[in-house]
Amino acid sequence: LDGASPLRPPFLMARAIENGPGYQYLRETCPANGFKVCEFLPRLPMPSDEFLWSRDPPGVFVSASVEVRRELSAEQYRFVWAVLRHDPMGVARTSIKDVLRQLTLMGLDEFTVPGYLDINMAEMPVGYRPAFRASAAYRGAMPTRGASVIQLATFGVGAVTLLAVLAWPRWRRELEREQFHMLALVAIGVVVNAAICGALSGPHNRYETRVAWLIPFAALTVGFAVTQRRWGRLAWPVGRPGSMVAHEP
Fold it and tell me: Is the bond preceding 45 in cis, omega lying within 30 degrees of 0?
């Protein structure tokens, strides 16, 4: 539509319906509540990604007309507020569950082409299709399983290391205030990322994978800091190549 504002996909509506409270609200209040999404109740419930993006089988948002999409987009905040008032504990419980699940997802399986991209190949420019079909992601040749195991292992070792440093008073005293603040910011950032992405868009590997590397990185930083403060800094003395001495900081 000329001059119309961009559409915002109703992520929150889709999550509320998939998680249960939104679907239960629709079953109990449609059509009296006046929400456009009531027209799609016979198709519900369905996963949020299917609700938003599926054309075959038909979902809700992307398979609807532009006018209906605009109505769904415009009503999503009112809908979520209505669901929250209808079942606040249900919304809180399912949101916390999504956040906790998001914290455990850090695989690389999404580097393999999802099925819906293959289905929608007709929408891809013709010149890109041969290269796309020849890619390792399309052929399923990406080493995602081994890389996922390595990432999960390094994340686990890093997380245990950070917890040990923070729990052991002797090691904790080795940290500078700025280093401690850095650890706090990293931990808060990882949790906030899971809260925003997991609760609002739904748990997916890609959301946690993009920040999971921060944990082993922070663990390495702390390990170097503790080692340097405890054992001194190794340096090459001037005029004595090939020898090293320890200098206390």
Answer: yes
Residue among 206, 171, 199 at smallest CA distance from 14: 199
Please state, in angstroms and rounded to a whole number, the distance separating the CA atoms of residues 48 and 71: 18
- What integer is the mean pLDDT of 108-132? 71
Q: Would you tell me the crossing angle of helices 205-212 and 88-104 to the nearest 10 degrees?
A: 50
Amino acid at 141: A
Tokens, residue 120 = 């929608």
CA distances (Å), origin 79, targets 1, 11, 18, 53: 24, 12, 14, 19
| Whole-number Å distance between alpha carbons of 222 and 227 | 8
Tokens matching residue 214: 């921060």
Place of tokens 């956040």: 99
Coil, strand or helix at 235: strand
Average pLDDT along the chain = 83
**What gap in Å lies between CA 152 and CA 181, rounded to an integer?**
25
- Lowest-confidence pick of 7-16, 24-33, 61-70, 221-230: 221-230
Q: Which pTM does this prediction carry?
A: 0.73
20: which DSSP letter? S
Which of 5-9, 105-109, 148-152, 245-249 has the least mean pLDDT?
245-249
